[in-house]
Amino acid sequence: MASSPPAAPKGPLWRIYLVFLVPMVLSNILQGLQGTINGIYIGQMLGTHALAAVSGMFPIVFFFISLVIGIGAGASVLIGQAWGAREPHKVKAIAGTALVLGALIGLVAAVLGVVFARPALQALGTPLDVIDDAVAYARVMLLIMPVLLVFILFTQLLRGVSDTVSPLFALMLSTVVGLLVTPALIQGWLGLPRLGIQSAAYAGLVSYATALGFLVWRLRRLKHVLAFDRELLAALRLDRVILGKVMRIGLPTGMQMVVISMSELVILALVNGHGSQATAAYGAVTQIVNYVQFPALSIAITASILAAQSIGAGRVERLSPILRTGLWLNAVITGGLVLLGYALSNLLLGLFLTQPEVLAQADHLLHIMLWSILVFGFQAVVGGIMRASGVVMVPMAISVFSILVVQLPVAYLLDAHMGLAGVWVAFPVAYIVMLVLQSAFYQLVWRHRRIERLV
């Protein structure tokens, strides 16, 4: 990829979407595959007890990833607009500030993980029979956060300049490394120490560090706009003006993601109240749901990137077609995966769960809420278009309202009346409310605003 900006993308929008989407979806699948492979290794090699311990860590890791995703969302909107306006120097300046901020969040996560892992997991109601293993895993997982978060953030920034191929190659390498290192550490192959439940976390450190090193090498070789050359290295600082613009978009987006992660903590606490088997079922269902969400989120990210680049290039007339194309692609791609998930649910969940009663419970829970990921995808596309213009406060407020005022109360009420299944009914209820409110704000307010560049 050359370091000078290309002309604005041309051709049918669905084709431009697919050019972005195919590498991005594959990247997201590979990123999730690392967690899935680790889950399979842990579930099959160490048992349901160990899987329950690891599952309790999902929301805590997601909490810190959420902050970085918010920063990446803000930075990628600014980068997309600068790239669309053909201003590569601004691209480097924005990227430098974002990467430093992401590294600082990773360091905070590492320190907090060492000090507060046990109290946090106890507060979540982690079952006593897995608490020690869960704490051991949590501490190592949080220690590797600086590397993990910088890697995630860097891939977001690359997508802002239309590069979805480099993240794909890096994640392919990361997945292969994780696939080899995790079982080697579990079993002590090749003279390595047997690390048990901590194996997946240590393997993550090796795999993400390797992938990050590969990205640095690849981008320098290609003379990429985001290669670590002198200009980008000089930009690795917290520029107050740029930081303010990044935080204007990224902080509300990050807060939205944090609220989602906090709601997952509450949901997990409700699930933990039903015992370690329910926790293991939760972990397995989460794995399957993630794979259906990946394309929906990728479509929304693509919509936001294309919209930001169009705004930067002064072509705001493309925003409505970009939205329409994103919505029908979500219907086709995400909808198809939902149907596939229903057809193969028992087989897929069986990759993680070996006890028949836990497998049956997980299958029932998956059937309750999987269809609602299609609704989630629709509202994410609408929100992505609005975020590209810098409008984030109201979409964030809608999401927070839908989670705090709708999902969590519904989960508590239905848990009391229906048991564990009631917790999962709350997901589609919340997603439907999100879609209705986001669409109403888009139609009644956002469409009538003047759209201008932020950088």
Structure description:
The protein is globular and about 60 Å long. The protein is mainly α and 455 residues long. α2 packs across α11, α10 packs parallel to α16 and α11 runs antiparallel to α12. The protein has 17 helices and no strands. The chain has one domain (13-448).
Strand content: under 5%
Order of helices and strands: HHHHHHHHHHHHHHHHH
Number of domains: 1
Oligomer: single chain
Helical fraction equals over 70%
Q: Which residue ranges are poorly predicted, with pLDDT under 50 across at least 5 consecutive positions? A: 1-9
Query: What is the rounded Rg?
Result: 21 Å
Average pLDDT level: 87
Biggest pleated sheet = none
Task: Write a concise keyword list for the protein shown above.
single chain; 455 residues; mainly alpha; 0% strand; globular; disordered N terminus
